[in-house]
Amino acid sequence: MLLRKPAVKLIAASILAITMVTMAQARDQIKIVGSSTVYPFASSVAEEFGATTDNPTPVVESTGSGGGMKLFCKGNGLNTPDITNASRRMKTREYKLCDKNGVTDITEAVIGFDGIAIAQNKQNKPLSLTKKQLLLAVAEQVPSRDGKSLVKNPYRNWKEIDSSLPDREIIIYGPPTSSGTRDAFEDMIMKAQTKKMDVYTALYKKDKVKNRGYRKYHKVRQDGVYVPSGENDNLIVQKLEKNPKAIGIFGYSFLMENDDKIAAAKVEGVLPDPTTISSGQYPISRSLFFYIKNSHRKEVPAIDRYVEMFMQEDMIGPDGILSEIGLIPLPDERRSAIRASVLKHTKLTLDDLAKK
Amino acid sequence: MRPFELKKRHSGLKEKVIRFLLVSAAVVSILTTFGVLFSILFEAIEFFQMRSFWYFITGTEWSPGVTDSKFGALPIFSGTFIITIIAMSVALPIGLGSAIFLSEYASPFMRDHLKPLLEILAGIPTVVYGFFAAITVAPAIVHFFGLFGIHASFNSALASGVVMGIMIIPVISSLSDDVIRAVPDSQRKASLALGMTTSETIKSIVIPSALPGIISATLLGLSKALGETMIVVMAAGLRPNLSWNALEDMTTVTVRIVDALVGDHEFNSPDTLSAFALGLILFVVTLVLNVISLSLIRKFKEKYKINTL
Amino acid sequence: MNTSKNNTAQADKGGKPSARNNPFCDPTLKSRHVRSKLFKLFTFLSITFAISFLLFFLGDMIIKGLPAFKQTYIEVDVTYNDKTIKSTRRAIDKKYRKVVSRAWLRNIPRLVEQNPALMGTTQPAWVLANSQVDQYLKGHHYKLKDKYRKLIDTMNQDGKVEMRFNKNFFTHGDSKIPENSGFKSAIVGSVLTLIVTMVVAFPLGVMTAVYLEEFADDNRWTQLIEVNINNLAAIPSILFGLLGLAVFINLFGMPRSSPLVGGLTLALMTLPIIIVSSRAALRSVPDSIRQAGYGLGLTRVQVVQDHVLPLAFPGIMTGSIIGLAQAMGETAPLIIIGMIAFIPDTPGSIFEAATVMPAQIFTWAGMPERAYIERTAAGIMVLISILITLNALAIYLRKKFEVKW
User: Fold this and answer.
1) pLDDT in tens, C73-125
2) CB C231 to CB B290 under 8 A?
3) pTM of the entire structure?
């Protein structure tokens, strides 16, 4: 009885040893990590790829843009992911880390836009907000009445922010700090304005170290008015349904999924829809990316075919599968330019990232 | 020629080899504990080099992801604490009541059939409890309090607390049942002979005798509640909220760990590393609770000379 | 105890006239008995609550999950030719495009490959309906334009709509198309992961238990191991995920998301359960067995190997099965090591990426499409039936082989 135990252990050990050996050889399954926003798109393409070709379905893991970059930039070993998705552009610091670890040949692909929708229960009268009003609703500190100093956000009712807005309690369900949607919201709604508002920047100028947070102020209030909620949450529709006062902030794809219950609000007078988002008229949208590790192309030949499939009109085009689930296609010209550059495996350089 | 001696020498070697294997198996468990500790410790230290430990413990503002991010974990601890309190106030009376019923009142037949049912409760995966809390219990709570015009959050601490409490019932009932049954029958008989009613006997004789064991079970339940992840990830909120109102959304240590590790943060930022700092606190707290719990149960065992617990 | 004090005090003051002279009469007796009954009622209610919660919960899951085992199919004309193979959407009439599942359509080239005779023909076929149609017919929340709803209603009257057993649920893996998603790859992933778990945890656990019970002297070293094992049992599971990430993936370079890493991580978590139950089983073997063995000149190893272990085996098995069931339901550490991912393919080995049943449940629970709710509940039904079966097996083993010494 007991004698068999060490034998079992030996088997386990040899299995382990075999792993190490097999790991070093080529694999045919693509490994993809990265942003939770791109995840639904990437996994749809992955599924289509697995179902319609002889290749195994790529593994798509939602690790967040930052987590994805970390795994992606770890090195060229076959244990590292082949592709990382991102809901923002690679940062120069991340590029440098990749570079340091020998991941030098990267291709960048832009797949389309993701609009950030401000939505509410359909029963409500249509709402129209400006960026400034949104800032005043969500910021931790806002300019005081006389506009000379900053005070803790006193607004509890939309009417208090602007008399033209409805008499409604402010409750906002929005993305949590860890989400890429939150980053984008802070960038485009908060930072974009506060960096131009003297009342914030004056504090920064006074003490650049202590008040560095005021250069581009983007702190969200934590007094219960802004409720961080996961975006992929079955409950969010119920939340807006049960609480008609509330508004929600989430990716446009999510709005599409539930447009029978919730309706988008106008931002700066523009309703989000594929046309306004891709033309840039709608002010809160961002590009979605993925990055390909070209050094893996030889060992994992499926990468090329996957990328090719992803860049097809059937996927990212205006009538593509991804547009059905909420991706906003790039304008035609840009789309074909990017497709050409991706299929040529254009190498990403630090200069590309530096210029906007 | 000398078969006996030969065999003996051979088996002596075998004995040594086996002994060595056995010892190394035992060492694995020690390595695991240290493995867990070290895989948290280094990153936690890195975090505390960037941020003050003192503010982490006592600060009231948790705002990762902004330029001057602050990591005061008090709101997170308070959320964890409140959800745990709710869970324990569900689990403790019901768990203890069930244990008393099983050990003192139930006929052997009932016992044989009820206990496995409780064990099923213990065997339900936490992800399933989480789904139940999020899809069934949370909306029910919002609806119920809505009837009285009270606003409850869909991620209320109450929903995850109650469901977590139900999850812990079997933890408390099973260990308490064992200790209560271990209290010598002579004590019960003596009490009953003096004219005490059954409930008086239980309350003033059996429970006090079994108290160390019951406290130990409670502490075990407590550390389970503190470390529970899936229920709160699925049903509790993400907002660090320093409040006593259980109908509001709150976040817990484990939720923040998961959120920080799978979120869109930049790597090696304090945002991500804070997960390890929280993990370290969780590790230390559950360890302390467990050590206390173990020493209590050891005292109980010594008192009644039991070695089956 | 304090009640007895009260009793004498109250008896002195006297109650009813008849009781005044009787020193043994306790006027509070009635209320004490009432309280005793109430207490019994309380304990009874506690266990009733626990059990009725269990029943409510199981009922809730069954009501939510049962519909997932039926799936809607509709009969439409499908055209097979060169054009439709390229763009499979065109294979069916425009009118039906929105009610047919994309997952079925993309299979058309494969169908033609299997049956070349189809090429160039148009034939009626039963095809998988879109999840919205399915949800509509099941009376759930749906998002179907009135036009399509009427279409489905008329098709239903013509007998062109059918609910069939949802075979896909057991033959497919995860999918982004709700009606196409299944539980198979998660089931296989769980099996592979648990094989790794048991291959590692069972021998290690039993060996540790044997060492502690049969070989170790009672010294500081042994106590350290004992305390340590008990602590291991109390470490929150999520922290084991951090261990798995740091040691197995980052240090040893094992493949992320693989059953190997998941299994090893779960093995370390299961270890204390197996050790504790194996020790109890070994302890229950009476010393007389060992002494008889030594008396016949056997060595310690021989006694343990040939006599003690076989006798303790049923107990060890019971504990291991319970440990196995726990490992099967664990999710939190697997989030950290990447087993929560989109993995539709069934893993073929422990090195390939895989997901496990609870992880799949977690993924589905977070999906925005409502059709996934019933699949989540159905997945839960499958998982819980397996767990209950395992637990029943453990109880059966315990009952059958339990030896009273």
Assistant:
1) 999 888 888 888 877 778 888 888 888 888 888 888 888 888 888 888 888 88
2) yes
3) 0.86
The dihedral through the CA atoms of C347, C353, C356, C362 has a sign that is negative
In this prediction, residue B91 carries a pLDDT of: 94
Contacts of C404 in chain B (CB under 8 A): none
Burial string for B149-178 (b: 16+ CB within 10 Å, else e) reads eeebbbbbbbbbbbbbbbbbbbbbbbbbbb
Instruction: Using CA coordinates, name the residue in chain A closest to C370.
Output: A234
Question: Chain C contacts of A12, Cβ < 8 Å?
Answer: 199-200
Residues within 8 A of A (CB atoms), B 96-155 only = 134-135, 138-139, 142-143, 146, 151, 153-155
**From its phi and psi, is residue A348 left (phi > 0), alpha (psi between -120 and 50) or beta?**
beta
Query: What pLDDT shows up at residue B1?
Result: 43
Domains identified in chain A and CATH numbers: 27-114+287-354 (3.40.190.10), 115-285 (3.40.190.10)
User: Which residues on B lie below 8 Å from C328 (Cβ)?
Assistant: 125
Size of interface A-C (CB pairs under 8 A): 104
> Which tens digit of pLDDT belongs to each residue from C171-206?
988 988 888 899 999 999 999 999 999 999 999 999
A272 vs A292: CA distance, rounded Å: 30
Q: Which helix (H) or strand (E) holds B289?
A: helix B270-304
Please indicate whether, in this complex, the C-beta atoms of C351 and A19 are within 8 angstroms of each other. yes
- Chain A residue closest to C369 (CA)? A257
For chain C, what are the domain ranges?
69-165, 184-401
**Cβ contacts of B243 on chain A, cutoff 8 Å:** 224
Query: Across chain C, what does the average pLDDT equal?
Result: 86
DSSP string, A16-61: HHHHHHHHTS--SS-EEEE-TTTHHHHHHHHHHHHHHSSSPPPEEE
* CATH entry, C184-401, from 3.50.50.60, 3.40.190.10, 1.10.3720.10, 3.30.70.20: 1.10.3720.10
Report the CATH number of the B62-304 domain.
Answer: 1.10.3720.10
Instruction: Give the whole-angstrom CA distance, residue A42 versus residue B125.
Output: 30
How would DSSP label each residue in A101-144?
TT---EEEEEEEEEEEEEEEETTSPP-EE-HHHHHHHHBSEEE-
A23-to-A133, A223, A322, B297 alpha-carbon distances in Å: 54, 50, 33, 48
More confident residue, C45 or C148: C45
Facing B267 at nearest CB: one of A70, A179, A242: A70
Q: Is the minimum CB–CB distance between C344 and chain A shorter than 8 Å? A: yes
Q: Domain coordinates of chain B in residue numbers?
A: 3-50, 62-304
Let me know: does A54 contact A83? Beta carbons within 8 Å: no
- Tell me: the pLDDT tens digits for C326-359? 999 999 999 888 888 888 888 888 888 899 999 9
Of B194, B227, B308, Cβ closest to residue C238: B227
C-alpha–C-alpha distance, residues B32 and C240, integer Å: 9
- Helix (H) or strand (E) segment spanning residue B85: helix B74-100
pLDDT tens by residue, chain B, 309 residues: 444 444 444 567 778 888 888 889 888 888 999 999 988 998 899 889 888 888 888 888 887 766 677 888 888 999 999 999 999 999 999 999 999 999 999 998 988 888 888 888 888 999 999 999 988 898 899 889 988 888 787 788 999 999 999 999 998 998 899 889 888 899 999 999 998 889 999 999 999 988 888 998 999 899 999 999 999 988 887 778 788 888 888 889 998 888 887 765 666 678 888 889 999 999 999 999 988 888 888 888 777 766 555
Best B22, B135, B264 member to test A by mutation, with max A CBs in 10 Å, is B264
| Tokens standing for residue B66 | 């902004």
